[in-house]
Each structure stands twice: as C-alpha cells, then as structure tokens.
Amino acid sequence: MRSDDGLGFRVWEELRARGVHAILSGPDLPPQITDFDRVILIDAIDFKAEPGSVFEGRIEDLDVLEARSSTHALSPLSFLKIIKEVTGRPEEAILIGVQPKSLEEGEGLSEEVEGAVSEVIDRVMRLIGLEDEA
C-alpha cells in the first residue's frame, strides 16, 4: 500500500509466472535465510537517482545505502548484512534496488518503477542462470 514499495511483490509475481521459486518476505526476511547459498534481495531503495533507475550490487559493498529511507523498521538490506556478518550465510547476497518515485500511501507502482520491472527480472534471470529461458 506504499506505491513503489510494492516492487518486490510485482517482481515476485512475474518470477512465479516464469516458474522461478521465489520467496516473498514482506518487511522481514524469513528466518531460513541462512539455509540458502545465494539470496537476491529486491527492494525499492532511495539511492538518490532518477526514479526507475536500477542498481545491483553485493550487500557487503553497499555501505552507502545504509542510511536510506525505508518503510521497514530495520531495512531488509541491513538485516541481511547483519545475518551474513554473524553467520557467514548466505554465501552470496545481492541487492537489486530500484529508485522509487514515491513511497507514500497509494496502490500500484509509478510508471517509472513499473518500467524497471523487466530489467529487474532480466537481472534476476541472469543471476540464476536462466536468462536464455526467459
């Protein structure tokens, strides 16, 4: 219900439609996160870019994003970084972030963020080795 913060849900729907097993976690990451070798976190992230801009990086390289605004009490990025530092798992954690236009109350993604969904899907498919099957 916070406009572009629905990015994760929108991408999750598309991945499931393509037969990709994806977990929708909401504001909190699932406790079994350490059971996975690789986690790809998808979130609307304010990294001070043009709305709809897509950013990809390994979580251990993303200190600059710590202070971002979030609709979550503890951002999923912060939580994942803490879990990885404490447990060493998952072995690989990647963030694909999209610059939101709005995180205000409202339904549906902005045109800019909706336009970035296909790029996010392409990046996920590449990361999981299924880009030729998309």
Automatic annotation (TrEMBL):
Molecular function via GO: aspartic-type endopeptidase activity; endopeptidase activity; enzyme activator activity
Cited SUPFAM superfamilies: HybD-like
Gene3D superfamilies reported in the protein's UniProt record: HybD-like
One Pfam assignment: HycI
Keyword Hydrolase: yes
Assigned keywords, A-Z: Aspartyl protease, Hydrolase, Protease
Any one of the GO BP annotations: protein processing
Superkingdom of the organism of origin: Archaea
Similarity field: Belongs to the peptidase A31 family.
Protein name listed in UniProt: Ni,Fe-hydrogenase maturation factor
Provenance organism: Korarchaeum cryptofilum (strain OPF8)
